[in-house]
Amino acid sequence: MGVAAVPWRADVPLRVFGIVPQQLERNRLWRLLFAMYECSSIYRYGRVELNLFISEKEYTVLTAKPGKSKIYQALTVLAQLGYEIELLHKEPWSSFATNLKNGKLAIPKTVQVPNDHLCLVRLTPQENLFTGGLKPSNASTFIFMVKQSFAKPKSKLTDRLNSWSLDNSDRLLKALEIPKKAAMCNLYPEDYKRLFEALQNSDMFAETLFHDEVLASTRTMYL
């Protein structure tokens, strides 16, 4: 590419402009997230800035707030932790050509969120992403921990910790100042990172709990 790799905390080495195809749009966003957290693909050059057209539906998910269990998802948490997300422009779908023979727009149908526009979004990787215990080498474990947490978004955090065979969950949550009755969908992205870093330092937690699931999830992302 003719671009020299720079340290993660250096300035943005490259800016990319493009449009995310509507077909399998969510999968493509997941692949970008995996690559960013693992510093692979284009991110091996550093904090590459993406300027992408994505659907309003996916933009709404990326920027959702805690508590909205139907749109606040694992993708939301990981994107907000990993990127500075900036909306640059919203363009109505009617401005774009359609691929339907009857002349109507091929707009993906949605129920829970608006999807009337294509959004130009700037995604700049966070300079301080890899601080504390989160590193590219254990990022896939962190990603799976977040994904597993949202399997039942309204479940209590204590129940999830107990499912991971963590016996000192009450003490851990007290140290993190997270309410014991907090639901997974009510935690902020930063809470998930702090939780992961605390689990990394816990004698009761082992990454081997997620080993098989991480491998399976990673394979699926890159099929």
Automatic annotation (TrEMBL):
InterPro entries: KsgA/Erm (IPR001737), SAM-dependent_MTases_sf (IPR029063). PROSITE patterns: SAM_RNA_A_N6_MT. S-adenosyl-L-methionine binds at M1. Its EC number is 2.1.1.-. Keywords: Methyltransferase, Mitochondrion, RNA-binding, rRNA processing, S-adenosyl-L-methionine, Transcription, Transcription regulation, Transferase, Transit peptide. It holds the Pfam family RrnaAD. GO terms for cellular component: mitochondrial matrix. GO terms for molecular function: mitochondrial transcription factor activity; RNA binding; rRNA (adenine-N6,N6-)-dimethyltransferase activity. It is an enzyme of class 2 (transferase). GO terms for biological process: transcription initiation at mitochondrial promoter. Its main location: mitochondrion. This is rRNA adenine N(6)-methyltransferase. SUPFAM superfamilies: S-adenosyl-L-methionine-dependent methyltransferases. It is found in: Mitochondrion. Belongs to the class I-like SAM-binding methyltransferase superfamily. rRNA adenine N(6)-methyltransferase family.
